[in-house]
Amino acid sequence: MSAKLIVGLGNPGPKYQGTRHNAGFMVLDRLASEAGIPVTRKTFSGLYGEGTFQGERLLLLKPQTFMNLSGRSVAEALRFHKLALSDLVIIHDDLDIPFGRVKLKAGGGHGGHNGLRSLMQELGGGQFVRLRIGVGRPLHGDVADYVLTNFSREEQSGLDRLLDGMVGLLAMLVREGLPKTMSLCNNRDFLEGP
């Protein structure tokens, strides 16, 4: 049975738990909870779990290397399971997408995202699927500081709905494939409901 390696990007430790940069961890945690797959095993320089969801075999990983070294953890897991880049789904925050929206795509550059930069260096390319979660861009100030702040109170009120939407999107992705999921999900506002 083929498998998908689904990786949420973030920074380990309580200090970073609710921050925008940890949107990938938040989505992975929600997926793990829905799928009944505990992500608690310490391996691949991360926290890891595997199981079946929607009839598909999923390998779930939260690198514990800090964002800018995420590629090490992912490369270890891919090599161990002998998976191709096309079997990899990376969930990460994106400053260029407004909060409440997501973009799903395959391939592309790193756009200044340190986690993606590390992945592309370690994996030798960027031909993997990305689920980009909009965290918006600050009007003023440094983006590096901004991504390490918590979601605003207003954003937090919509976060549960957004995370549930992401789990639905990932379920569709593993079941139906990328083109169909992209056509239904890209540019949709997940805070407005279905």
Descriptive account of the structure:
The protein has helices at 23-35, 70-81, 114-123, 143-146, 153-176, 178-185, and strands spanning 3-8, 41-43, 46-53, 56-63, 88-94, 102-106, 129-134. By secondary structure, it is an alpha/beta fold. The protein has one domain (3-192): Rossmann fold (3-Layer(aba) Sandwich). It contains 6 helices and 7 strands; from the N terminus they run E-H-E-E-E-H-E-E-H-E-H-H-H. The chain has a 7-stranded mixed beta sheet, sandwiched between helices. Helix 5 (153-176) packs antiparallel against helix 6.
Total number of β-strand segments? 7
- The CATH top-level class label: Alpha Beta
The separation of the N and C termini measures 32 Å
Count of DSSP H/I helices: 6
CATH H-level homologous superfamily name: Peptidyl-tRNA hydrolase
Can you list the strand order of the major beta sheet? 2-3-4-1-5-7-6
Principal-axes shape call: globular
Task: Please state the average pLDDT score.
Answer: 94
Q: Specify the helix fraction band.
A: 25-40%
**What is the CATH-assigned architecture?**
3-Layer(aba) Sandwich
